[in-house]
Amino acid sequence: MTRLIRAEIFKLRTTNMWWLFGVATLISTAVMLTVDMVAAHSLLKPFDQYVNTETHGHGGTIPAEFLAHLKSDWALGHDVVTQAATIYTAGQMIGVLLACLLGIVLITSEYHEQTATTTFLWTPHRSRVVGGKLGTAVLMAGLAWLISTVLSVIAGAVFLHGEGYGTQLGHWGVLRAILLNLAAYAIWAVFGIGFGALIRNQLGATVSATVLYLIGTTAGATVFELLNTYVVPKDWVLTAQVVVPSIASAVMISPTKTFDQSPAQWVGAAVLIGYGIVAGVVGTAILRRRDVA
Question: In the chain, N or C terminus with fewer CB closer than 10 Å?
């Protein structure tokens, strides 16, 4: 298995693939980090100031119920722990997609470059080939997470210190988000291996995965919102949107609720791990049975 992983890494570093994914990781992290820090600058303000902004011009005394609603809304995403976790995991939005695409390329390149026959002749046990690709995908995803996290933590710590809130790196909620972000990268890489085995055309698989990921969050939230409004007006329907992989990723790394009916972090982690296991098993089964030609 070690030799198989080394062989897969050799394939990556002797092509343009490694620097393309590396540059994409750096650029996407920098862009999302800038967006998150700009957002945090406006969101990180005292609750009293938030109340004055939201109720400016209404006059009179603020009703207690409305004030409680405002405080709940403020706490959902305006506290410093949530913003710190968001900044330190800024690379996830595009980073996990890149990890998924890397997994897809590791599988589909065998057919795209017509090296599958040679690979399977040298390693007749196809399960080992899949295992080597899974190990490589997870290692490379971990490396991408490390690069993205180091950049985010350095820039984020400077930003938060400058804002007067401290780095928040001593808060377990922030550290947990960073560690769970690593799990998200690894699971999405495994998911890419399974997706590439399912659709072995490289262009078709990468385009399909990208489209599904980019519209997944919006489309999933919209579908469950419509179900809640017109079919089953229950809170659990909105909570169920965590079955969408991209939403599960967001839930898993957020120390607070990402939306009003958001489940606990472990639910998002369980959903994402489930997808990873299914993708790995399905991908292995398909490659073991499918003809190369």
Answer: C
